[in-house]
Give the backbone structure.
Amino acid sequence: MKKVLLKIGGMTCSACSSGLEKFLNKQDGIESASVNLVMNNANIQYDEEKLNLEQIEKFVEKAGFESLGIDSFQKEEKKQNNQKYKLIALGVLAVITLYISMGHMVGLPAIPYLDMHENPINFAVILLILSLLACIFGWDILKNGYKNLIHKSPNMDTLVGLGVLSSILYSLYGTIMIIKGNHDYVNNLYYESAVIIIFFIKIGKYVENRNKDKTKEAISQLMMITPKHATMLRDGEQVQVTIDEIEKGDIVVCKPGEKIAVDGEIIDGVTHIDESFITGESMPVKKEKGKKVIAGSINYEGTIEYKAEKIGKESTVSEIVKLVVEATSTKAPIAKIADKISGYFVPVIMLIALVSGLVWLIINHDISFAINVLISVLVVACPCSLGLATPLSIVIASGESSKKGILIKNSESLENAHKVKTIVFDKTGTLTKGKLTLSKMYNYTKNVVDNKKENNRLNSLSDEDILKITASIEAKSEHPIARGIVQEAKERKIEIERVRKFENLAGLGVTAEYNGEKYFIGNKKLMEQNNIIFDTNFSIDKDEEELQKEGNSLLFVAKDNKLIALLGVNDNVKENAKDVISKLKARNINVVMLTGDNEKTAKSIADLIGIDNVIAGVMPKDKAETIENLKKNNELVMMCGDGINDSVSLVKADIGVSVGSGTDVAMDSSDIVLMNNDLEKIVELIDISKKTIRNIKQNLFWAFFYNLCMLPIAIGIFSSFGIIINPMMASIAMTISSITVTLNSLRLKGVIRKIK
């Protein structure tokens, strides 16, 4: 299966997006398609053996829309000024139309030769001309409406187009009758309704487009975060180049106050760098030789040289933009409900409008009133606000979350995060800092005596020898304990040597050959499975218990079939872990620690931070099984881990959260990536989810509220009480509905920024 994100042209409302989505999902070879109205794109997964990109684009065109190619996530260059001038011209046209048609009602002087009573033909013809000019301004609406009707996916433009067309056709009939001499029809012209409907729909679209651009502001800022130029070393000289000229392996120079141009690794210099736009961490991070730097981050003080590693679409920023855009293109369950409703909404409204008009025509034989009802129903019930209700909020929440260092990869996780009842934490690297240090070593070779050769020690190894062997083997592992051992060796300036036949044993440890001899390094289960002999001359059980009491993780080292050392590796609990656990408990969330470490060590850490439920000594495959068991209560389970050792359990959880993944943002195993090690972000994630869903529900309420209030009035149910609206008022009401929803969505931006 292959994925593609296409930019789509011609979508105006939720009926457009849902219609295109349904059409694409019916096509053979397309596994799934999700269409986003706000981002104007379609996220399509397809079988590349059955389809190619060209065929998919033809499907889009067949559905009545335009494929603008693969979405490059670049900021859309809207011709806002041009739109503004067209809107002003249309406004002038609308004012002139209203003056001619209705000016006499408010006592305004009549224009010579255009008085409706003295010159009815001139009056009717000039209004016809003005309405046709308005149709030119609104041609895109009329064309889209007709096109979608032909393709059996009527949308908002279809309703507006039918309303405008009905007004003009009935008025045109009236004009013909006036020319024939029946001047009574001068009171039954609806040209001004057609003009005003187009004018207010255009105002609504203009405001809507501007507000949609504002919702994508966070994504646009990410795309613009990297500098356009950089300083590069060429033949020992500093040269100014554009970002596009930098290639992998080039040496780039960054001076104080400048931005890092591309992802890379420092080869010279020391500085502090602000990475807050990626990680959400406000404090500058110390960077020195060997440390990674991220494009777009700001260099505070020192001049550094770094080797370019990830450029263009491979960079961290590009990956984040891609994932945020893809997240906004996925459908949250609440959005699917709104899409389903809007899919049926337009045809139902067309039927209601037609039936209402016919019923009134039968009741009072007034064709003018019947036409008024038909047009008003078509215009007032446009589902534009309904289509914007969910995607606007999702786009804002995803963009603002990314600025806080919370990368949400699908909107379903965003919707469900606040419903979580159980959060499972991995211990090492999640609740603890993951920077383990060697705290104590028990060397069981120092006092081993060969009974045949009295006073001669057998295979005696120094502490330094054992650390050298252990570090050389662990250097090939990515486990946090392994990194701690290797770091200890480096700090003691112990040389790391090559080993042979290295093998990583998931959940147990590692094995390898060092200088021709086989070593086993790992937990007690590894020793038991390989029948390692524990020398009874030593109080190994006592040593083990002592290390566990001090909160150490244990590392057994065996040579061939004999235990030669026991290492205690310590890890510090994160400063805010206790506070975060307390906040989660206050939200009635069950917190569980799930770790492969021994029970005593895990329990001591859990007691320190306030976790009551501890599941220890668990293999990676058993972690996933534990998650499945927790899910059996039909409660949502969130798993928080480092995204490497916990990949299976992250996938099994309802929501997988990868904590402290640094620049590895493309990880497939998690639904949400926290770009730093701050556990507080989990609490923020839950609060963002809650606020976003509340905002969506408010939007849906306002979208339905306007329709529920205005539709009965437009139908004419309250006409006997003198309460009725005309098409002009209907277009104003529809515009207000869309503006209300977009403004409420924009309010979410400030709400999320206040969450801490």
Notes: The longest strand covers residues 562-570. The mean pLDDT is 82. The chain has five domains: 2-70, 80-217+324-394+692-754, 227-314, 400-427+574-686, 437-570.
